[in-house]
Amino acid sequence: MDQKTPLFRLKRQARQASRARHIPLHAALDEIAGAVGFKSWSLLAATAPRQLAASAIYTQLKHGELLLVAARPGHGKTLFSLELAVEATRAGHRAYFFSLEYTVCDVVQRLRTIGAEVRALGDRFAFDDSDDISADYVISRLAAALPGTLVVIDYLQLLDQRRDKPELAKQVSALKAFARNKSLIIVFLSQIDRTFEASSKRVPDLEDVRLPNPLDLHLFDKTCFLNREELLMID
């Protein structure tokens, strides 16, 4: 079985197994989920729609592009970015996750949530939680990166939090030039202003991106906004 098999086909297989082996349907569903890398059917069912979206969006990303992924806390931007990273490894590329917020244990747990294991990814996935993360740091770490490498930066608003780091606009511009020169894909995670929650919009947009410091959001080639199960991609 393939993790990309549609849910309705996996359900059909579970029903057939339940009837043939005289086992409860929920047990058959959990077995099917386990065969494609998930601990339970409920976890697979909750994750599958976002994974399908990540797979579809990954195919739209071009080498040299910057993607902004924005959402309020707890609405899935980290999981979504990790799914993009896993998609990159499946396509034969390396993926890097630079985080000023999460620890390696946090990322391992979130990878398991989407049905991935760090050991299985091997050297195709690298995590870095250095306090020195900035545009210059990322560029130095990726000096030898091959075209198609996908890079996640978690997150945008923390890049210039330290006074010894260049202003945000300069860092994003430097990373944009670097991505184009090296043919990389760089994904920036971003916060959304809390005022969005009082709005009538189903999904945030550029106006809702929290910017404590000036930044031209048109530096990003594509943007992706999440809100619960909703996802909006803007090219």
How would you explain this protein's 3D organization?
The protein has 235 residues and is an alpha/beta fold. It has two domains: 7-36, no CATH class; 49-234, Rossmann fold (3-Layer(aba) Sandwich), CATH 3.40.50. The chain has helices at residues 7-21, 25-35, 41-58, 77-90, 104-113, 118-121, 135-141, 168-182; strands at 66-71, 95-99, 125-128, 150-154, 185-191, 222-227, 230-234. Strands 3-2-4-5-1-6-7 form a seven-stranded mixed beta sheet. The relative contact order is 0.15. The mean pLDDT is 89.
Chain-wise SSE layout:
Elements lengths: L6 H15 L3 H11 L5 H18 L7 E6 L5 H14 L4 E5 L4 H10 L4 H4 L3 E4 L6 H7 L8 E5 L13 H15 L2 E7 L30 E6 L2 E5 L1
Parallel strand pairs: 1-5, 1-6, 2-3, 2-4, 4-5
Antiparallel strand pairs: 6-7
Short description:
The chain has about 240 residues and is α/β, with parallel strands linked by helices.
Task: State the main characteristics.
Rossmann fold; globular; seven-stranded mixed beta sheet; 7 strands; single chain
Largest sheet: 7 strands, mixed
Rg: 19 Å
Distance between the termini: 33 Å
Number of DSSP-assigned strands: 7
- Strand-residue fraction? 15-25%
Oligomer: single chain
Question: Poorly predicted ranges (pLDDT <50, ≥5 residues)?
Answer: none
Please report the first level of CATH classification, the CATH class of the largest domain: Alpha Beta
